[in-house]
Design goal:
The two termini are 67 Å apart. This protein has helices spanning 2-19, 78-83, 90-128, 137-189; strands at residues 27-35, 43-47, 50-53, 65-69, 72-77, 218-221, 226-235, 238-245, 255-260, 266-270, 273-277, 282-286, 294-301, 308-316, 321-329, 337-345. By secondary structure, it is of the alpha+beta class. The radius of gyration is 35 Å and the shape is elongated.
């Protein structure tokens, strides 16, 4: 699972780069989404560098989405985007950088000061005790030079510490002003009138670093343009996507799509006609009975006694309804299985306004 999260995080950065690359290959697709187990609320998908909200239900297919972008679509939690801390202005980042650099100079000067102080003390002590001969000539020369260097290091440490303190003070002040500006903007959006305050002094625009989107919880690479149904299944903390190509005639209204997730082969039988479905396979059964009548399907599973009925699905046949059937394992054992059905009703075609588009042949509205 850790490797999956790392892969998804890397995918987010890669997709961001592709989205900004005009030469990257693009696809144009329409898709519907369905969560196989738990609903995914607060989710969305990346469209370029922005995220489009799309809650994914486990009871019905989402509305049709239009996606035009790089072949790999990334799904993220849109709430993660809104909950991220506001990006610090460049002035605060610059002040932090100056403070860090000053602290590093002070640290290095302090280390050198300590080393030279020890060396000078060793030379002085040895001279008083008549042991100067135990100090090498190079150390003695360095100790003599250290006396002059120590005062310079003291000055460097004092200046660096002051610069670090000044930088931290600037960070604190700018953060206070930035937070105040955010609060005022929020109150303004909420319609709360507040006394105007003078805007902070403008500084040179140093540009913003590109933001990196949160790690997607699932990705899918569309093989080509077209229409798809995306099914989301849990995989630890992430999700995996099973895609069904939904091109014209592949899963028409009035038919049933069986997806076998039992882990064993099954047969679906209508009116004596059997359709075998391998594990993780799928099959479309088109209008087994006349419209507006009941259809009874039998799902047979294997055992020591051969294929026997594991589930009976009784449905009402309608020309404008198509049904997804997920075949699932059952804890009851034997030939028994569970089934989950999701129906989708065909939406009526939009009716053209006869009064619209007089130039295109429609009638002009009369007064």
């Amino acid at each position: 699972m850790r490797s999956l999260i790392i892969t998804l995080t890397a995918a987010a950065v890669s997709l961001l780069g592709q989205a900004n690359d005009p030469n990257a290959p693009k696809v144009s697709v329409k898709f519907r989404a369905l969560a196989f187990d738990a609903p995914i609320i607060g989710s969305g998908y990346l469209d370029g560098t922005t995220a489009k909200r799309l809650d994914i239900s486990n009871d019905f297919l989402s509305g049709e989405q239009t996606y035009r972008g790089v072949p790999t679509i990334a799904f993220v939690m849109v709430d993660d985007l809104t909950k991220q801390a506001p990006e610090a202005p460049p002035e605060i980042l610059a002040a932090r950088s100056r403070g860090s650099a000053a602290q590093e100079r002070a640290r290095k000067a302090s280390e050198e000061y300590t080393r030279l102080s020890d060396l000078a003390a060793k030379a002085t002590t040895g001279s008083r005790e008549g042991q100067a001969g135990k100090i090498s000539a190079s150390e003695l020369a360095e100790a003599e030079a250290a006396q002059a260097r120590l005062s310079e290091l003291s000055r460097i440490m004092a200046e660096a510490n002051k610069e670090a303190d000044d930088a931290q003070t600037e960070v604190n002040n700018r953060q206070r002003d930035h937070q105040q500006a955010l609060t005022e903007a929020k109150n303004s959006k909420a319609g709360k009138a507040k006394a105007p305050t003078p805007p902070p002094a403008k500084t040179a625009d140093k540009g913003k670093a590109p933001s990196v989107p949160p790690a997607p919880f699932a990705t899918y690479t569309f093989p080509a343009d077209g229409k798809y149904i995306l099914l989301f299944a849990s995989a630890g903390n992430a999700k995996r996507i099973m895609a069904i190509e939904d091109k014209e005639g592949s899963f028409p209204f009035g038919s049933y799509l069986y997806i076998n997730l039992t882990g064993k082969p099954v047969e679906v039988r209508y009116n004596g006609n059997s359709t075998p479905i391998a594990p993780n396979g799928r099959a479309v059964i088109k209008a087994p009975v006349a419209n507006d009548t009941y259809a009874q399907g039998e799902v047979l599973t294997p055992g020591e006694d051969g294929f026997q009925i594991g589930y009976i699905a009784r449905t009402y046949q309608q020309a404008d309804v198509r049904t997804l059937f997920f075949l699932l394992p059952s804890e009851a054992g034997g030939h028994s299985i569970n089934i989950k059905g999701i129906e989708e009703r065909k939406q009526p075609e939009p009716v053209a306004d006869p009064n619209a588009g007089g130039a295109a042949g429609g009638k002009a509205a009369t007064k």
